[in-house]
Amino acid sequence: MAVYTEVPEEALAAFLEGYDIGRPVSCHGIAEGVENSNFLLKTTQATFILTLYERRVNPDELPWFLGLMQYLAQHGLSCPLPVADRQGRTLRTLSGKPAAITTFLPGGWSRQVDTDMCAQVGAAMARLHLLGEGFVAERPNSMGPQSWTGLLEACRARGDEVRPGLVAEIETVLARVLPAWPGVGNNPSLPRGQIHADLFPDNVFFRDGKLSGLIDFYFACTDWYAYDLAIAINAWCFDADRRFMTDHAKAMVEGYRHVRPLEAAEEAALSTLATGAAIRFTLTRLYDWINTPSDALVTRKDPLDYLVRMEFCAARMGERFLP
Ligand SMILES: Nc1ncnc2c1ncn2[C@@H]1O[C@H](COP(=O)(O)OP(=O)(O)OP(=O)(O)O)[C@@H](O)[C@H]1O
Ligand SMILES: N[C@@H](CCO)C(=O)O
Predict the structure, then answer these.
(1) Structural domain contains residue 321
(2) What is the tally of structural domains in the chain?
(3) Are 226 and 252 in contact (CB under 8 A)?
(4) pTM for this one?
(5) Judgement on whether residues 168 and 294 belong to the same structural domain of the protein
(6) Is 35 near ligand 1, meaning CB less than 6 Å away?
(7) How high is the ipTM of this complex?
(8) Ligand in nearest proximity to the CA of 303
């Protein structure tokens, strides 16, 4: 249950007076999500999402995230639009936490993934990349390759409790990936811009089989476009038994290409980027696994899901990722 902070009724009513969105009718905590407290807020005018920012989000970076969402939504991407108060502010404070109200997106995320959905995700991601070119402020990727060695060190003492030899396995692959990363040494740079960087199935809504929106931009950053695709291939294109689904990955890449053609260098880098993406999520999940008490409110995600992906992708480094 991701509600860490309660919002008393009177405090909410006073807060909403600063906006022009009607009076509160109801406000219920949303169980899904692990990072922030989210509430489904109904007012006399419409339904909204109220978010209180809690854990990993650096408050100083919230204006960038909200600015990007606002820009993308106003330019035609289906994503939550941050709602401005009467003074034009999208970022406020509520119950002592940074808080924002965004528009509510219809639809819901799907636990069943098929090739058509993967193609739609690829196309929506490419649209995000193209639209994002008009949003010039940059945010370096705080979860990029420069952070992985430190994360591994933070997991070194206890990582092998999850599985013996785990830390050494990650370390071996990391030592191959870091020097092969685009832009490092003589490796070519790739087209870059605003990326979502966490486009997992639970952040993509569908309605009647059609993609209805993208949510959760709080890992978004300025990085290689193809890295976003690599993250999504990891997240969408392995089955419950952790086997790679080539057709799903091909459909996603095709859907992407249809909107934004991939350069040869991006295709060539895909196996390295996918290996890096798998390392990133193995490490953050491992870190959380070790550092989240087992009786905490949030459900920990299994790092081994991503370790399997890491091994799979690493075996393809230096080759074309897709046949
Ligand atoms: N704009 C929106 N419209 C409709 N529902 C939303 C919207 N934003 C969030 N939700 C709902 O809230 C849930 C949690 O949102 P979100 O994924 O952003 O939270 P989070 O705490 O940042 O989670 P995590 O980073 O773990 O995915 C979503 O699964 C969805 O049910
Ligand atoms: N998508 C991440 C969680 C944080 O957004 C994961 O599955 O590890």
Answers:
(1) no
(2) 2
(3) no
(4) 0.95
(5) yes
(6) yes
(7) 0.92
(8) 2
